[in-house]
From TrEMBL:
Domain Glucosamine/galactosamine-6-phosphate isomerase: 9-230
Membrane spanning stretches: none
Domain of life, per lineage: Bacteria
Protein name per UniProt: Glucosamine-6-phosphate deaminase
Length: 247
């Protein structure tokens, strides 16, 4: 299903409220909530709202376990562009989540250790009962996580090469495209698909053409997000601008 909201602020609050409800429901049952998280501009206000719910309304993250979608490779956690730093600054430093419950792909691994690490990342999600909810943004290439065009629908966590357009879109954060890493570690399309609930969000006109393809286009590896059309657990949450090219 596709839900269109007047603007990204209202949409973000709605998604944050859904996450909060999930966390509380699990709390009542004495269970953990396993969340798949994204970085980038899209979820920033969701995290802001979750921080507010924690500080002003007592929402606790003690029972929350998180797995981030991706990290650049190579990447030092304390670098300005690292997704570790992004998550700390936008969410984790401001809530009561247990540090040991946070998982973000490790951008510091030696090349020969990456493959095993990816299998372990995948296994850990499985051992914890799988992702209850995965939130996604979408790149202009149609990537989800860093699953660029050509990604297989059953792909797992792995090392990938970033698309040129993705590196161009990231160039401002890195002060030039030449400084953007060429690779990343990402959960796969298959990993994302196993989540019990998937929410893909997009705001602004810049995303309208790719949203049209993702929601209405032919299902194809050329636009990885089109694979989401095959899942019954997906909701596209859009602002009016991102939805503006849907027929
Ligand atoms: C980030 C991620 C990416 C972004 C996408 C959109 O963890 O997996 O797929 O969601 O590149 O980025 P923004 O939100 O910055 O437009």
């Amino acid at each position: 299903p596709v839900s269109v909201y007047p603007d990204e602020h209202i949409a973000s609050k709605t998604v944050a409220a859904r996450i909060a409800t999930l966390i509380k429901k699990k709390q009542e049952k004495g269970e953990s909530a396993v969340l798949g998280l994204a970085t980038g501009a899209t979820p920033v206000e969701i995290y802001e709202e979750l921080v507010r719910l924690h500080k002003e309304e007592g929402l606790s993250f003690q029972n929350v376990i998180t797995f981030n979608l991706d990290e650049y490779y190579p990447m030092q956690p304390d670098a300005k562009q690292s997704y570790v730093r992004f998550m700390d600054e936008n969410l984790f430093n401001h809530i009561d989540i247990k540090r040991e419950n946070i998982h973000i792909p490790d951008g510091t691994l030696a090349k020969e250790d990456v493959a095993n690490y990816c299998i372990e990342y995948e296994n850990k999600i499985g051992e914890l009962g799988g992702l209850d909810l995965q939130v996604l943004g979408i790149g202009r290439t149609g990537h989800i996580g860093f699953n660029e065009p050509g990604s297989a629908p059953n792909s797992g966590t792995r090392l990938v090469t970033l698309d040129d357009l993705t590196r161009r879109d990231a160039s401002r954060d890195f002060g030039g495209k030449e400084n953007v890493p060429t690779k990343a570690i990402t959960m796969g399309i298959g990993t994302i698909f196993k989540a019990r609930e998937i929410i893909l969000m997009a705001w602004s006109r810049k995303k309208a053409p790719i949203i049209r393809k993702a929601v209405e286009g032919e299902i194809s590896g050329n636009v990885p997000a089109t694979y989401l059309q095959l899942s019954e657990n997906v909701e596209f949450i859009l602002d009016e601008d991102a939805a503006s090219e849907l027929t």
